[in-house]
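From the methods appendix. Each design record in this collection lists the tokenized structure first, followed by the designed amino acid sequence. Records were kept in a plain field format so they could be parsed without special tools. The example shown here is representative of the layout used throughout.

RECORD:
FOLD TOKENS (366 positions):
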């Protein structure tokens, strides 16, 4: 059977700053989806990562479906009403347009979707990150799909021996989607040359070259490109099908032990290590560190199993402890050099005015 998995996520208000949505807000979103989706979706799961709420649903309407996107938009509006009634911070923050217009892409919320013919057993992973941007998945996707140091299946399994096709988007180009398709392993160095620049080039999808099937879908939204000003970091989501012709779950999780430095953290303007955390985790130290959750499911005839929390295991406790040290270390250099993002990536406009003012005071010494 052909099934579509759609995840749509937004920050529509949170407790105590940008920390976590309230229970009431979560319930409002969940109830809206449950009460307004009869005959439209097959199953759904609602979760939070930091201050973001994700609606994951299965259906047979295909990707970019207007009714599915409107359901999510309206659910987030229902959540926003509750956020306002509770005085939550940033109520409706990611709903950047006044009215829904056919497709939620470009309206604020992030979307990751995949339509495929279900395998007899269909395991997949849902990642959600907070306080960072979509380039945060570049390194894990490079290592998980193209490097035998993490993906031993590239050597050991005949079902991955042809490698994978990466579709990479230039997110600085805002008139339309600007994408390139590159094949691993032949074009590995070209892929690396692009993925290195994680603020500009972002993996959008990955397909198996053994069977043509899609393995990955990443949300590529850059909020500041939509709003034209700071409205929060993009907080990307991603779907990854695993096992068989795709990497094993553990091969996809493996690179997350690096705690790579990503853009985001406090005011979306700093560099911090990406910490794999348990589902429903909050945000804390210096409005961070940037976090990522991973929820695993199997799906059969569109019906989801119960979720499993992939970073809830003793192994990740020591990883988190090391990453905490990395976070503390980079914070010791405050606003200097690599600790704060380059000018083009700073999310707050205030510094631009400040620098313009100072610029006028400069004198050329003869
Ligand atoms: C980062 C983030 C927070 C806020 C910070 C200030 O993505 O959401 O670090 O930037 O708490 O928030 P405002 O500007 O809303 O007072
Ligand atoms: Mg927020
Ligand atoms: Mg967020």
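DESIGN:
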């Amino acid at each position: 059977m052909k099934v579509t998995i759609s995840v749509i996520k937004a920050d529509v208000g949170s407790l105590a700053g940008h920390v976590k949505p309230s229970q009431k807000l979560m319930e409002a979103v969940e109830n809206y989806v449950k009460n307004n989706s009869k005959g439209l979706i097959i199953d759904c799961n609602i979760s939070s990562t930091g201050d973001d709420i994700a609606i994951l649903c299965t259906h047979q309407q295909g990707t970019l479906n207007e009714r599915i996107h409107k359901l999510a938009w309206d659910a987030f509006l229902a959540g926003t009403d509750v956020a306002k009634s509770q005085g939550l911070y940033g109520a409706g923050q990611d709903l950047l347009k006044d009215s829904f217009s056919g497709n939620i892409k470009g309206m604020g919320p992030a979307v990751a979707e995949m339509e495929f013919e279900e395998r007899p057993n269909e395991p997949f992973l849902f990642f959600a990150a907070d306080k960072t941007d979509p380039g945060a998945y570049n390194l894990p996707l490079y290592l998980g799909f193209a490097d035998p140091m993490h993906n031993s299946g590239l050597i050991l399994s005949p079902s991955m021996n042809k490698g994978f096709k990466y579709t990479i988007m230039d997110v600085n180009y805002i008139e339309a989607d600007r994408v390139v398709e590159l094949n691993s392993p032949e074009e590995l160095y070209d892929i690396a040359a692009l993925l290195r620049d994680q603020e500009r080039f972002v993996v959008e999808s990955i397909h198996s070259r053994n069977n043509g099937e899609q393995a990955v879908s990443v949300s590529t939204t850059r909020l500041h490109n939509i709003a034209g000003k700071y409205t929060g970091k993009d907080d990307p989501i991603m779907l990854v099908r695993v096992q068989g012709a795709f990497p094993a779950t553990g091969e996809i999780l493996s690179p997350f032990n690096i705690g790579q430095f990503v853009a985001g953290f406090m005011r979306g303007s700093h560099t911090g290590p990406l910490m794999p955390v348990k589902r429903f985790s909050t945000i804390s130290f210096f409005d961070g560190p940037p976090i990522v959750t991973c929820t695993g499911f199997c799906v059969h005839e569109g019906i989801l199993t119960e979720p499993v929390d992939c970073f809830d295991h003793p192994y990740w406790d020591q990883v988190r402890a090391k990453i905490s040290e990395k976070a503390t270390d980079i914070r010791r250099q405050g606003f200097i050099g690599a600790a704060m993002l380059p000018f083009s990536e700073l999310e707050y406009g205030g510094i631009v005015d400040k620098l313009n003012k100072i610029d006028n005071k400069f004198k050329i010494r003869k």
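APPENDIX NOTE: The pocket of fructose -6-phosphate (ligand 1) is lined by residues 17-18, 131, 232-233, 266-268, 287 (CB under 6 Å).
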